[in-house]
């Protein structure tokens, strides 16, 4: 009887441990303080911003965290402040890492690693190309929406050396390669608001009971040239402006949407699971600044179902 009792205890312990591991599989990777950049509040331990050569950069400490001092490591030097840091971006395009940390703190959550990417300015585009990568021509912005549909300020150059770099805790650079070409380098447009929304939405999906360490991406940036080439007649698609992405959950690693609703089929109903979570996401006050377009799409024989999300500033569905 004792052997049976101890065996039962051991089995119970294993089951509890297994459940605990599963429950802790996803971590949001938030620091214990937040920074603010371009009106976006960022608590993530890894984040990326995109600036022009010699652009003035200002990163603030969130107001509720200004009760102590912070250190920024910038260009091999350290500077201290309790409220904000300002500096000028490098004059050459490239990747320049920065670290912001709480003074006299040693915990793993006490620092934020900020990737500063200096873009290739739009002015370096020659005709329809930028350094051999075809962009095409951006349409003139509508008179009443010039801010939302103006030409991008610059392009991020994706090279082999940065593919494995984390832009955020759960999204590496390689996730944002375009479907336009399988060659490198590529040039893309990407907005900080989309990175933040992807991380927050991924957390909401996990909280809703659908485990995922990241999202699979069907389509992210599409140049005007490529958008037209694939037959998309939406001249003002948010994909052209770097704040839209088509995503799915793929825990099986087969580049196909998982059976999220558990009916044994892989169809639009699985995308609809994500759609419902995304709709609730956009309706939450805390995510108001990240609202955007939302739609779900059927599988087509080449790829599985997926949903579209973006950060255009207003919630719309189609």
Write a brief structural summary.
With 318 residues, the chain is α+β, with helices and mostly antiparallel strands. It has four helices and 21 strands.
Describe what this molecule looks like in 3D:
The chain is of the alpha+beta class and 318 residues long. Helix content is 19%, strand content 31%. The chain has four helices and 21 strands. The strands form six sheets. Strands 3-9-8-5-6 form a five-stranded mixed sheet. A five-stranded mixed sheet has the order 17-18-20-19-21, covered by helices on one side. The longest helix has 22 residues, at 2-23. It starts with a helix and ends with a strand. Residues 1-23 have low confidence and may be disordered.
What is the approximate shape? globular
Number of contiguous helices: 4
The portion of residues assigned to helices is: 10-25%
Please compute the radius of gyration using only Cα atoms: 22 Å
The mean pLDDT is 92
Keywords:
31% strand; five-stranded mixed beta sheet; 4 helices; disordered N terminus; alpha+beta; 318 residues
Helix and strand topology:
Elements: H1 2-23, E1 30-37, E2 40-44, E3 46-51, E4 56-61, E5 70-74, E6 77-81, E7 84-88, E8 94-102, E9 111-118, E10 120-121, E11 129-130, E12 133-134, E13 154-158, E14 166-168, E15 171-172, E16 186-188, H2 192-207, E17 216-219, H3 224-229, E18 244-248, H4 268-282, E19 293-297, E20 306-310, E21 316-317
Parallel strand pairs: 3-9, 19-21
Antiparallel strand pairs: 1-2, 1-4, 4-7, 5-6, 5-8, 8-9, 10-13, 11-12, 13-16, 14-15, 17-18, 18-20, 19-20
